[in-house]
Amino acid sequence: MMRYERNNIKTMRGYVSGEQPENDKSVKLNTNENPYPPAPEIQQVIVNFDVKVLRRYPPARADKFRDLAASLHKVDRHNIIATRGGDELLRLLITTFVNPGEAIAMTDPTYSLYPVLAQIQDCPVVTVPLNEDWSLPNDFTERINKADCKLTFLVNPHAPSGKLLDTDTLACIASELDSVLLIDEAYVDFIDDDYDSIPLIFEQDNIVILRTLSKGYSLAGLRFGYGIGAEPLIRPMLEKTRDSYNLDLISQLIAEAAISNHDYAMENCRKVIAQRNTLRDSLLELGFSCEATQTNFLLATIPTGFACSAKQLYEELKTQGILIRYFSDPRLINKVRISIGLPEENKKLINSIKSL
Ligand SMILES: Cc1ncc(COP(=O)(O)O)c(C=O)c1O
């Protein structure tokens, strides 16, 4: 069978999805999901759903959702593409703007799906290591242009550090780059500073912004995201590279209800932000170092002389039914990433760490 696989597929490793708990009693703080439920109107959409309508194909371009998103962000429908999670948008950007063999740029560390998607398209990956404090090196754009990259992935706020770049910096990066720039704003709803990068799509012709309902709207199980960009970037994805009916009818109706209840979701995000600050204070008290973040997770460094390593901490907590994330990447080896949970979940985590 193996002889039928393309060479690049044969040699690559697939994306490793986040660990799923064995039962509902687990405290799941490993994949940056939102601990609060989605808007009650979504339950109503499901309760009132008439299965007979499933006999027809869904709206191909999710135009109702696109209109709602356009109105929320004060852009036009033509600036929006709806996708099966933010992840589908990443794949569309590659198939639309990068030929096999052409380079794709990203920082190191970054979202671990980017290199996997690049490998699927047989594209070399150009990684630019972040500075010690997770800031971008001064020659970031120069290195990417020199390597002739066709697409640059930049996650903002950054994962896994939670650090935020301001919009002036983003504008500068976009204007210097020769490539398309994807600004991945999966965690944008947890920013507590003033931040709005959307006007940049009218100033720079190479920016696409990724948004998702998975985090801020508590809908990771739905698989719904969208891209925002100048029409010449959105149109080829919408008309040519997107799957014929990429979004089923049920998810479109739920996504419409979710974005119509934006304020409900933002209220939940404010609760997450408050919990983020409390959890960070508790970790600092225990001797962890832990930068303030603009996301729904914290990157905590194990104190020197602590009872165990980051990996052992992850393993020990797992035996107690608490899932967090550790990384084998050398720069992250002494760190764990903790998603912000409900107040009682965060307390349980802190008590378990204390008992170590
Ligand atoms: C940085 C980043 N970008 C994009 C995504 C994709 O989100 P989704 O496909 O669930 O919309 C994630 C999910 O964890 C992420 O962490």
Secondary-structure map:
Elements: H1 7-11, E1 27-28, H2 40-47, H3 63-73, E2 80-83, H4 85-97, E3 104-108, H5 113-120, E4 125-129, H6 140-146, E5 151-155, H7 167-176, E6 180-184, E7 207-212, E8 225-229, H8 231-241, H9 249-260, H10 262-285, E9 289-290, E10 297-301, H11 310-319, E11 322-323, E12 325-326, E13 335-339, H12 343-355
Parallel strand pairs: 1-11, 3-4, 3-5, 5-6, 6-7
Antiparallel strand pairs: 2-8, 7-8, 9-10, 10-13, 12-13
Polypeptide structure, described:
The chain contains twelve helices and 13 strands. The chain has 356 residues and is an alpha/beta fold. The chain folds into two domains: 114 residues, Aspartate Aminotransferase, domain 1 (Alpha-Beta Complex); 209 residues, Type I PLP-dependent aspartate aminotransferase-like (Major domain) (Aspartate Aminotransferase, domain 2), CATH 3.40.640. A seven-stranded mixed β-sheet has the order 2-8-7-6-5-3-4, with helices on both faces. The radius of gyration is 21 Å and the shape is globular. The chain starts with 6 loop residues before the first helix and ends with a helix. Bound molecules: pyridoxal-5'-phosphate. The site of pyridoxal-5'-phosphate has 13 residues, from helix 4.
Highlighted features:
4-stranded antiparallel beta sheet, 12 helices, Aspartate Aminotransferase, domain 2, Aspartate Aminotransferase, domain 1, 356 residues, alpha/beta, 2 domains, 7-stranded mixed beta sheet, binds pyridoxal-5'-phosphate, globular
